[in-house]
Amino acid sequence: MIFTYYAALSSFLGTSVEFVEALTVILAVGAVRGWRSALIGAGAALAILALLVFAIGAPLVHMIHIGWVQLIVGLFMLLFGIRWLRKAILRYAGLKALHDEQESYEKELQRQQNAGQIRRGIDSFGFITSFSITFLEGMEAIFIVITLGTSGANLMNASVLGASLGAVVVLVVGIIFRKPLIRVPENTMKFIVGLMLTSFGAFWVGEAFSVEWPQADLSIVYMAITLLLFSWMIIRHCKSRMNRSASISQRKSEAI
């Protein structure tokens, strides 16, 4: 049961993060090139992504035996989760800028305005922009859905449900308010998804090597908490080192 909720929540958060970034571009396209072009482009990409999930993800559940796929899926989730977790740690440690949707929106707005004359009907530049950003961000969401869905029995439905809810919620809220979702804690959500995918991946890699996890499925929660504490320690250490370096540089400049 914990796998089902874990897969649904991971898919929901991961998909929401990806589509918040896609929505920012779609809103800029709609504001400049026209909403028809923006929505048709995004809709076409979503339709293709949905087909990919059902054409690739669903058959994999029945074709691939859970015994040996655990290692492959676990490694992919580990790599993907560690990538998100690393970026989140760098952002919260001050070594990488936090992602700012308002800044991204203004840049894309300027790019759309400089793209030339707007065509009647479906503007090709607006359509391609909306289609490409939705498809690219959606592909990462699909990776999360398929890896989570194929990692255990009856998890594909939970993963697809979570991803669908994430996409629908983000797009509906964005279209209603027609503003970038700057209040969405995107950086925090990426941090959480990184923790969840990394712990889930580690669990399945261990299962592939017949590791006897204490308290079975609950080990995933314990691993996520351990990763959170370890990440917090790294962030505090990095901030401390940066503050000491800044203090030393300041004293040197004052001495000169």
TrEMBL record:
Transmembrane segments: 6-32, 39-60, 66-85, 125-149, 155-177, 189-206, 218-235
Name of this chain's protein: GDT1 family protein
Keyword Transferase: no
Lineage top rank: taxon: Bacteria
Tagged with keyword Transmembrane helix: yes
InterPro entries documented for this protein: OFeT_1 (IPR031594)
Keywords, alphabetical: Membrane, Transmembrane, Transmembrane helix
